[in-house]
Structures are given as C-alpha cells and as structure tokens.
Amino acid sequence: VFIAQSRASGSHRDLEDEELTRIFVMIPKTYTEEDLREKFKMYGDIEYCSIIKNKTTGESKGLGYVRYLKPSQAAQAIEECDRSYRAILAEPKNKSSESFEHDYYSNSMRPELRGNTLPFCMQPEFCSFEKAEARIQEPVSKRLSVISRLPFIQEQLFALFDLVPGLEYCDVQRDPHTNSGYAVIQYSTAASAIYAKYKLHGFEYPPGNRLTVVFLEDGNDSSE
What we know:
Blueprint: H1 2-9, H2 12-20, E1 22-26, H3 33-40, E2 46-53, E3 60-68, H4 71-80, E4 88-89, H5 97-108, H6 124-127, H7 131-134, E5 143-148, H8 154-161, E6 167-174, E7 181-187, H9 190-200, E8 212-216
Antiparallel strand pairs: 1-3, 1-4, 2-3, 5-7, 5-8, 6-7
GO molecular function, one term: RNA binding
Organism: Cinclus mexicanus
Protein name: RBM45 protein
C-alpha cells in the first residue's frame, strides 16, 4: 500500500528512500552492528546497520536500524524475521528519534494478540482487536462508511480493504466543495465487515491521515 501511494504521488524515489527501506528493530543489548547485519542480511542487500546508543554512557539501548536497498527487502525482513525483533518500518529521519523510540517502546510492551492481526499491521492501536470490543452492542452490517480528511484514490482504497476477504465493492465518492474523502465499502458477510472495521478504523492511510470507519445500514437484520 505504501509503495502504491508513493508512486501515485509522483515522488516515489524520495519516499522509498525515506520510509520504505529502513526498518527499526528491538535487539539484545550485546549485539554489535556486525551481529545485526548477520541476522538480517538473508532478506536482501543491506546499505547500512546502526545501533542506537546512550549518548552519555555509549551503551546500546537495545534498538537498531537496518537500511535495505529495496522496499521489497525491508518488507520481507519485517514479515519473516523472528517476532522477538518486533520489526517495523522506521519513521522518516525528520521525526525526532527520541520521540520515535518512546512510541516504539510503549507500543511494543503491549501484549500481542496473535491470530488477530492482519499481515500489514504495524501499529498496535488497530492490531489489538480484543474480544471484549466485539461484544459491544452496536448496529452492524455488511456495509461500511470510510471518511478521511484527504481524498481517496479508488484503486488504492480498494487494494487496502481487499486485504480482508469478501470485499464486494468499493465506491469512492467525491465532494466538489471539500477536499475530504468519502467511500462506501461492502463485504459479502457481516463478519468480514466487522473485522475490517476494527482493523482499519484509525489506520493511517496515507501515513499521518487517520481513517474513520463506521457501519452503514444495509437493510438486513443485524441480529444475525
């Protein structure tokens, strides 16, 4: 999704350099840069590895960066490396590293709910689909409304929601008076719509732009 968005923006080289080839990982404090390179070189050509150190003591903070030559290599490393590394795409360099490290630590310490995460999940607020949330009584349907402060591109929004099985259609609607985005999504079953809502409500797409996903009445009996 990120690669598609960057190409549509017309500046995908810059975006790939900044956001799609660098990953952020949690590592043992005993690791050297060579150890880090050795663990991650199997996924592709590494441009550089770096370990974040305490500025006062020089000791490792147990965090590091791995920069690949291609976005596909970074994606493969995130997918296939051991879960203990908690690998994610790194924030752009223009965001302060201290802020990013703090966010990463606080998010990484939350308990993982394996089996309840989509393959592309990288932000815990929408990866933690707790069973208690599913019991909240609200009208549900097979149809969703998606709202954004930025306009949607039909093909990209379809590709995003098609990650949940059962997508029947994605209808992007444009308001000529505003620059916001609005779309109607429909799935073949209410279960797929529920899953998509809880996974993608609050998801940042493009990065920095949070999606609002709510149920739309579809005329069916929601009790089923």
